[in-house]
Design goal:
This protein has helices at residues 9-39, 72-83; strands at 51-52, 63-65, 95-99, 112-116, 130-134, 140-143, 151-153. β6 (140-143) and β7 (151-153) form a beta hairpin. It has 2 helices and 7 strands; from the N terminus they run αββαβββββ. It has a domain at 51-153: Microbial ribonucleases (Nuclear Transport Factor 2, Chain: A).
């Protein structure tokens, strides 16, 4: 029997093309997730906290903001949640899931729930803004950077 040479060039080209596609897809997904929250029109709201809370431990150093100074869309969501019997989001919004406080920023020992502060819009990023509320609906925390920092709304 005579050995025949096999041309592996085509298979190798497809392999490298697949690797390039995988790399580009990963970079695209990373960039779109990181930038979508910051660039989506009408999604990021600048607020200036009034005063940080004194003390030490989790929940300390969280700025507070009067409800009347909070962004209008946040005020509306807080009003809705306070008036509703259960912790369910308004129609067209996402939320009501348990917020586990993995970052350890909020005070420990409470059960928290998180809500999007903007309604769902097909094809548009959810953005980074969220509202986190305790089970008793007595404390509301607003984050504009997806749980990186919080502002307590009073």
């Amino acid at each position: 029997m005579k050995a025949t040479a096999v041309n592996h060039g085509y298979g190798l080209s497809l392999f490298f093309l697949f690797l390039l596609y995988l790399l580009l897809f990963t970079v695209y997904r990373s960039c779109s997730r990181a930038g979508a929250a910051d660039t989506a029109p009408g999604r990021v709201t600048n607020i200036s906290p009034e005063t940080p809370e004194p003390g030490g431990g989790a929940g300390v150093g969280i700025a507070t903001l009067a409800l009347k100074k909070a962004p209008e869309h946040v005020r509306k969501l807080i009003k809705y949640l306070k008036s509703s019997k259960y912790l369910h989001p308004p129609k067209g919004y996402r939320g009501g899931r348990v917020f586990r406080n993995r970052e350890g920023i909020l005070p420990k020992g409470k059960t928290y729930y998180e809500f999007d502060v903007h309604p769902v819009r097909p094809g548009v990023s959810r953005g980074a803004e969220r509202l986190v509320v305790d089970q008793q609906k007595s404390v509301f925390y607003y984050t504009k950077d997806h749980y990186g920092t919080f502002t307590k709304i009073k």
